[in-house]
Specification:
The chain is an alpha+beta fold and 247 residues long. It contains 7 helices and 5 strands, in the order H-H-H-E-E-E-E-E-H-H-H-H. A hairpin with a 7-residue loop joins strand 4 and strand 5.
Length: 247
């Protein structure tokens, strides 16, 4: 019985590894038409099933009923699947964690947001479809992290930051509302909106568009020559970003 209980806890640990793999796939994500979304969904399902099997195995051990033939095969197959997805998650984690490349911004738009839950209704997942910035015939689909869900909606202009990847597999480090597009629309109507200029400079610095940040800071100085404080702040931001980028 002790061996069976120990085996049940092994499956619970496999479920923990599967959950880590899910996190890695959502955090160090790649944009693909279908593959990455499909793999994430399958990982969610396999993790939920492994967690359930672990508890079932412990319960059966306590009841002194042992799984037979086909059930044993199911346990082993589920364990192999979760280990495989854990290796995939480890690859994505290493590809992103070791990456030191600068993010490349791509302006695009959300076509649609979809999502659902796994069969056990305990692990929700969401993904978005974006207007492609590489191949117009190839849609971009991207997993959406939990902290991002409330910030996005269909038709929203966004900026996708793509990095090269340590192993050459491009991954998306961030998706942000396209502050530049929104701010320029506001400035057409209200050219004296000082806070919009400030937010725009900070946004350009954050996504690495330094020339745009300098140009916008110059526009602000021309509009508000009496403000001596923000140009200093902008220069500090630009200098710090240039230093971290090795320029």
């Amino acid at each position: 019985m002790i061996a069976q209980i120990r085996s049940g806890f092994v499956y619970l640990m496999l479920a923990v590894l599967g959950a880590w793999s899910v996190w890695a796939q959502f955090f160090y994500r790649a944009s693909q038409p279908y593959l990455t979304v499909l793999l994430a969904v399958l990982t969610l399902l396999a993790t939920a099933l492994t967690l359930a099997l672990g508890f079932i195995r412990i319960y059966r051990a306590l009841q002194r009923t042992w799984p037979r033939g086909l059930a044993q095969f199911g346990y082993r197959a589920c364990g192999v699947v979760v280990v495989g997805f854990t290796l995939w998650g480890g690859f994505l984690f290493s590809n992103g964690k070791l990456d030191r490349s600068d993010p490349v911004p791509h302006a695009t738009e959300i076509v649609g947001i979809a999502g659902g839950e796994t069969g056990l209704s305990i692990l929700p997942f969401t993904w978005m479809e974006l207007r492609p910035w590489k191949d117009p015939k190839r849609p971009e689909r991207l997993l959406v992290r939990g902290d991002e869900r409330a910030r996005f909606f269909n038709g929203q202009p966004v900026m996708v930051l793509v990095r090269r990847g340590y192993f050459g597999v491009a991954w998306v480090s961030a998706v942000e509302p396209d502050v530049a597009r929104q701010s320029r629309e506001i400035l057409k109507v209200a050219p004296r909106a000082s806070q919009v200029y400030k937010d725009l400079v900070r946004f350009y610095v954050r996504i690495g568009r330094m020339e745009d940040a300098r140009r916008t800071a110059g526009e602000y100085t021309a509009q508000f020559p009496d403000d001596r404080e923000f140009p200093v702040q902008a220069a500090t931001l630009l200098s710090a970003r240039d230093h971290t980028s090795g320029r």
